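Reading a protein record of the kind used here takes only a little practice. To see the layout at work, look at the sequence and tokens printed below.
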Amino acid sequence: MVENYMTIKNTWDELKLKKLEELWKQGLPISKIGEMLGVSRNSVAGKAHRMGLPKRTSPISTEKKQNLSGINGNEIDDKNIPLKIKLRGVQWSRIKCCWPEGDPKQNDFRFCGKDIFPGRPYCDKHSLLAYTNTRENT
């Protein structure tokens, strides 16, 4: 006898729903909750969303924020702020040289910022480096 998919027992009974809510409030990882309830991590995440349980922040991103926050007391240590956060405040201009200086993976990375050579994205100095005439090299 083949069972219709509609007659298969529901994975989420009242007991599991109450347990999910309790474990969620305790702040356990979603994977751990799924393991304890005998369901997948995705099943837990979906059910928690449909139940309207509070959203969770990723433990990975939370850890990164704590490690890279760069906050010492009330002062912010500029070297520890992630580059993508630091660059949010940069005012970009089409009239300033965008020649990269330093290692893009480091927080002291920046762009030249001098006035550009007309028609090019770089200043005079960096235009000479970027635009070479192949006949000069032979």
